[in-house]
């Protein structure tokens, strides 16, 4: 289940991060509804990571193919491209809580089917891809429903902390889930992982059901194409929203292949087993948790239009180094650093788009961003696999070299793109306008890193 807390319906515009002063984490968790959803989401996220480990390991074990892992990514995430916009429109038209409960039940049923399939020996690559596609359809409707329902749970001034905390639960689960999955799968097999994931939906469904109904944001006659056009115009014409879209595309397309191909790094580069795969995923999660903790401690004057490109640059650098290493311990350290800066980038991107988007078109705009994010991931995975296979053939290498080269080229591009965006920044990401303090920018890498132009006098 993909779930990240977004902003409340009243939040359409803010300035720099100082508009939302820091609050202690326990302050956000004092809200009963948010606390229930956060705990339920934690359990479900652990189940999701456990299932992900099982599915990707089975595919890698059965095929030893970067292309098959890429095909799995297309099946799981591709439906967002097909159903993303209809889902966004529907979220604006219906009770969002009901829609979320329906999608959660659907994903629970799919998880149960996967457990049955593996128990009876039917979990072949075509079955894994087929169930992944069906789950992807449910996810396409679940994601915008989650994003627009959750903001009702906390006051506006606590939203940055709530967003970061919800992202942290997902990454705490990334630490616990893969580590548990590696041990459990090695001892009892993948059926147990899939069963536990199906059961993990119970808690989050109870938490969501305990919240108040969420009436539609859009009333009156619905004109789908006109409403979609309004959302597209908003993203196209708002400089900040357009730049956030670019950052999300870069992060999704260029960083996603590493996680998708991680089973092949473990089996073909390190020649290790499931437990090492779990450790590698946990390293990414641990880094993301540390990143979430430190992100809230950055100076209030340090703006998101500096944080985002800096995080893209550092993520790309650590991932590129990872691809060059063959020693698992050093590689895990690189993954920890990449997770640290990945959460900086992702949280800042999602906070920016939410704070820039009017509520009347929130579902539609979020769907556009979801389509970009989830659509770019499988595209990046497939292109990375094709590039790696081509380079490995040219150099006379095998699957290990293919995955190192294919992923490494993509992460190097992410590093370079982050550097360019850090030199030539976009203040509109923080909704700064010409004449506002901090809007005037001085191109330069050091100026981008230090954000000296925003430092209080």
Automatic annotation (TrEMBL):
It is a multi-pass membrane protein. It is found in: Cell membrane. Residues 33-430 form the Major facilitator superfamily (MFS) profile domain. This is MFS transporter. InterPro entries: MFS_dom, MFS_trans_sf, TM_effector. The lineage of its organism: Bacteria, Pseudomonadati, Myxococcota, Polyangia, Nannocystales. Keywords: Cell membrane, Membrane, Transmembrane, Transmembrane helix, Transport. The chain crosses the membrane at residues 37-59, 71-93, 100-121, 127-146, 158-176, 188-208, 244-263, 275-295, 307-324, 330-353, 365-388, 400-424. It holds the Pfam family MFS_3. It comes from Nannocystis punicea. It comes from the Bacteria.
């Amino acid at each position: 289940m993909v779930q990240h807390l977004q902003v409340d319906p009243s939040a359409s515009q803010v300035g720099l991060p100082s508009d939302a002063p820091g609050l202690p984490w326990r302050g956000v968790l004092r809200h009963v509804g948010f606390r229930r959803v956060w705990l339920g989401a934690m359990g479900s996220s652990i189940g999701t990571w456990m299932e992900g480990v099982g599915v990707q390991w089975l595919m890698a074990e059965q095929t030893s193919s970067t292309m098959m892992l890429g095909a799995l990514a297309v099946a799981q995430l591709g439906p967002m491209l097909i159903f993303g916009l209809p889902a966004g429109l529907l979220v604006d038209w219906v009770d969002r809580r009901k829609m979320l409960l329906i999608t959660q039940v659907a994903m629970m049923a799919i998880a149960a089917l996967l457990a049955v399939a593996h128990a009876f020996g039917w979990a072949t690559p075509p079955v894994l891809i087929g169930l992944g596609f069906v789950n992807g359809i449910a996810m396409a409707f679940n994601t915008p429903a989650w994003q627009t329902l959750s903001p009702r749970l906390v006051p506006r001034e606590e939203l940055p902390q709530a967003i970061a905390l919800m992202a942290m639960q997902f990454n705490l689960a990334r630490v616990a889930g893969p580590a548990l999955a590696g041990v459990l799968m090695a001892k009892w097999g993948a059926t147990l992982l899939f069963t536990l994931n199906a059961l993990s939906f119970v808690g989050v469904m109870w938490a969501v059901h305990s919240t108040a109904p969420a009436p539609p944001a859009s009333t009156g006659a619905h004109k789908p194409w006109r409403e979609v056009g309004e959302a597209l115009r908003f993203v196209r014409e708002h400089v900040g929203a357009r730049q956030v879209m670019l950052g999300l595309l870069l992060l999704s397309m260029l960083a996603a292949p590493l996680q998708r191909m991680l089973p092949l790094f473990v089996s073909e580069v390190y020649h290790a087993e499931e437990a090492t795969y779990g450790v590698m995923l946990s390293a990414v999660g641990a880094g993301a948790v540390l990143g979430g903790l430190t992100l809230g401690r950055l100076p209030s004057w340090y703006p998101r239009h500096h944080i985002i490109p800096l995080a893209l640059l550092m993520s790309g650098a650590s991932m590129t180094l990872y691809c060059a290493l063959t020693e698992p311990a050093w590689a895990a350290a690189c993954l920890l650093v990449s997770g640290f800066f990945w959460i900086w980038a992702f949280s800042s991107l999602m906070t920016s788009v939410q704070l820039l988007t009017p509520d009347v078109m929130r579902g539609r705009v979020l769907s556009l961003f979801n389509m970009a994010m989830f659509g770019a991931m499988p595209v990046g995975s497939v292109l990375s696999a094709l590039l790696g296979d081509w380079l490995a053939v040219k150099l006379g290498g095998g699957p290990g070299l293919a995955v190192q080269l294919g992923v490494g080229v993509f992460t190097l591009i992410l590093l370079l793109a982050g550097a360019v965006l850090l030199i030539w920044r976009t203040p509109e990401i923080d909704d700064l306008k010409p004449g506002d303090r901090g809007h005037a920018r001085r191109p330069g890498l050091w100026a981008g890193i230090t954000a000296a132009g925003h430092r209080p006098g």
